[in-house]
Specification:
By secondary structure, this protein is of the alpha+beta class. The protein is built from ten helices and 18 strands. It folds into two domains: about 210 residues, no CATH class; about 80 residues, no CATH class. The protein is globular and about 60 Å long. The C terminus is likely disordered. Helix 3 packs across helix 4, helix 3 runs antiparallel to helix 8 and helix 3 packs across helix 9.
Amino acid sequence: MRNRKCGLKFFISCFLFLISYFLLLTSYLYAEDTIRVLMLETPKDAFPSEDAQKFGSLNGKVSVNGQTYNGNIDIKKDEKGLYFIAEIPFEKYVEGVVASEAGKYWDIEALKVQAVIVRTYAAYYKSVNAGKDYHLTSTVLHQLYKGENRDPWVALAVRETEGEILTYEGAPIEAFYHSTCGGKTELPEEVWGKKKDYPYLKSVPSTDESSPYASWKRKLSFEEMGKALNIKGIKGISISSFTSTGRVKTLKILKEDSSETEIKATDLRRLLGYKELPSTMFTIESNGKEATFTGKGYGHGVGLSQWGAFEMTKQGKTYKEILAYYYSGATLKKQWPESQALRSSNAKIPEPSNQ
């Protein structure tokens, strides 16, 4: 009898252990993966200092800088003001960025391309900034995030690629992308120097003539330029060198005292404003009072051209073929186990649009 009782106790203990293990495993597999985003209005906004202290927290739908976000939001404060850090379900974040970054009426393959590179970029920075207060910002310093997605096509593209990221040697790549390259993508070392190797990023031809930035023209007075660059007495500007892909690398600024200042084209864009000078692929004409920039493309030009990818979908290319073209040597794989991917949102297949 005693042996029977001992056996029953052992059986019950084993059963309870298995149940506990199963519940723990299930909670792990189905745990909501999140990403922490510092909500900024513009790329020039201040970042929280190391002395910033937690001021409070909010949960639910919150309006920050005119945008509505849904999730947990931590508020930090320092001498410069308040900062909002949103913790967002990872795939919902991907949806929001795709909706903010993609062109209107893009087809499903173009949206799938965007979903994979947005997810890859986020996975990379979540890994790099693990343990910090936030992983990335909501502006073009990282990826543009304007809140929850409302487009069913975007939701479908994210769902059908759920968990897919680009990797190199087993780790997420730094999946740089930009709006429009102007005919050929740029090498990363031409933009950021040779601080790091990007073996999966090459310069490739890319047609993006459907882009609103396929060609552009900007006129800037020397007075405006002087204020933006903090240089007094500008009377001329000229190109002094080019990158290997034909973009402007450096420029010379001539001042009224006949002295010259050299500036990198990437710094000129940053200081003038990215919309004021959409890319570094331009020519210059000046008349002594102002400079006319005539160019093509929008963005740094490195990695995937969003409008180039759109053109490739019109030629019948799949999202996997497009990703392989722009990120040669990278491998497309699932980030999470299949069981975790079952947490997919209940996005419905949208009705065909006449647009």
